[in-house]
UniProtKB/TrEMBL annotation:
Domain of life of the organism encoding this protein: Bacteria
Originating species: Isoptericola halotolerans
Domain HipA-like C-terminal span(s) in chain numbering: 155-393
GO molecular function annotations of the record: protein serine/threonine kinase activity
Enzyme's top EC category: transferase
Family: Belongs to the HipA Ser/Thr kinase family.
Domain HipA N-terminal subdomain: 7-111
Keywords: Kinase, Transferase
This protein's name: Serine/threonine-protein kinase HipA
Length: 426
């Protein structure tokens, strides 16, 4: 039976209870009630859980807000539908979904049955050899295609691409127990005959570049398990900590769509494409409202434009919400090179100073966008210039032999775009 109530735990204490109910049209909705101790620990009005959901015990958020935010933690598309089916819950019922898959979410939240607490001594993980990892990748690929059933997945990972969360420790892979945090995400590569078969390769290369210029902490590489190619990325919301359960400390985060209250059940809503929301300006305002500088967001936007990442939508931009209450832009993730493909869209996910054509956006547009957020022009120009100069240096230093799946055309496109953007800043 699907759960109708779940408790949300954050950084070692219960913060809220989510209760499922149905509207007159039988649509599932989630009511949120703050734990009596939440304001005592975090402060009245604290946004430790979400920018959208400040802790106000005398004024709980509307079910529409709570539902949209909780829905944003769920997978998308057929992956979501099939995981819900396997758990025997309605795919629209986020409370029921996290009653089954709430032990390892994106960020630090742990969902448990009402009036229970998370287990501090997780079960031993199940060791996997290459064949075992490959089998799990095949299962998630089948699930994304609407086929196959299994009970192997324990993590809930947002997104459309088939992926799994696993634990990597002491050189071995293992499947986490339901309440154990995973350390890495493995995303399945597209078929060899696909026009975007190199997507995982260019993502690993783009994240390598981002790491070299200080915009991410993620390690990424392409691996093959029993003939299943995938990109393996370390989770930035998991930090080794010998005193934490399972030896990992969870760091809370939310993506920009959640922070802005955008329900992305329609995947197109992740993109701006001329709408008022989402927008870079509103994301910058969220950072500012929560005490963080928006400069890294401008640097991330410059990187996305330079590498030709058309997919930099609101769910691919996130904020860390740390235990001490500070907020920061999350490390870059899901960054890839797209524009070396002739069939690729040339539309950027977000408008930059009113422009979304990636061939028309210049370094001057980037500076103007930063100025529109309230940054002094010299400061905005300095952020853009430094990012592009650092990226150009990284392109000269990176060992391209470590990324054999990245076509020469992709490297050339990134170099040309970086130089073109940089020339228009001055």
């Amino acid at each position: 039976m699907a759960a109708t109530e779940i408790d949300a735990w954050l950084y070692g204490s219960r913060i809220a209870r989510f209760t499922s109910r149905r509207t007159a049209n039988s649509v599932p909705r989630a009511d949120l009630v703050w734990d009596p101790g939440a304001a005592d620990r975090w402060g009245y009005g604290s946004r430790i859980l979400s920018h959208l959901l400040p802790i106000e015990q005398d004024s709980p958020p509307s079910p529409a807000r709570a539902s949209a935010w909780l829905d944003g933690l769920m997978p998308e598309g057929r992956v979501r539908d099939n995981m819900a089916m396997e758990a025997g819950v309605d795919p629209e019922d986020a409370v029921g979904f996290f009653g089954a898959y709430g032990g390892d979410t994106v960020g630090a939240l742990e969902f448990v049955a009402a009036d229970f607490s998370p287990r501090r001594h997780p079960q031993e993980p199940v060791l996997l050899d290459d064949d075992g990892v490959g089998a799990l990748l095949r299962e998630t690929l089948a699930r994304a295609g609407g086929q196959g059933r299994s009970q192997h997945l324990t993590s809930s990972l947002p997104g459309m691409e088939p992926k799994i969360g696993l634990v990597h420790a002491d050189g071995t892979w293992s499947r986490a127990s339901p309440d154990q945090p995973t350390t890495h995400i493995l995303k399945v590569a597209r078929a060899a005959d696909s026009p975007t078969a190199d997507l995982v390769d260019t993502e690993a290369a783009a994240l390598d570049l981002a790491r070299r210029i200080g915009l991410t902490t993620i390690d990424a590489r392409v691996e093959t398990f029993d003939d299943m190619r995938c990109i393996v990325v370390s989770r930035y919301d998991r930090v080794p900590d010998a005193d934490a359960p399972g030896g990992l400390r969870r760091i809370h985060q939310e993506d920009a769509a959640q922070a802005l209250g955008i329900n992305t059940r329609d995947p197109e809503r992740k993109f701006q494409h001329g709408r008022a929301l989402p927008s870079l300006a509103r994301i910058a305002q969220v950072l500012r409202d929560d005490g963080a500088r928006p400069d890294p967001l401008l640097a991330l936007t410059a990187l996305n434009l330079a590498v030709g990442n058309t997919d930099a939508h609101a769910k691919n931009i996130s904020m860390l919400r740390r235990q001490d209450g500070t907020v920061a832009l999350a490390p870059a993730y899901d960054v890839s090179m797209h524009l070396h493909h002739s069939h690729a869209s040339r539309v950027f996910a977000m408008d930059v100073a009113g422009e979304r054509d990636m061939d028309a956006i210049t370094g001057a547009h980037l500076v103007a966008e930063g100025v529109a957020w309230g940054l002094p022009r010299r400061r905005a120009a300095r952020v853009v210039t430094r990012t592009l100069d650092d990226l150009r240096a990284a392109l000269g230093e990176i060992d391209r032999d470590m990324h054999p799946g990245v076509p020469v055309e992709a490297w050339r496109t990134v170099v040309d775009r970086t130089d073109t953007l940089r020339r228009a800043v001055d």
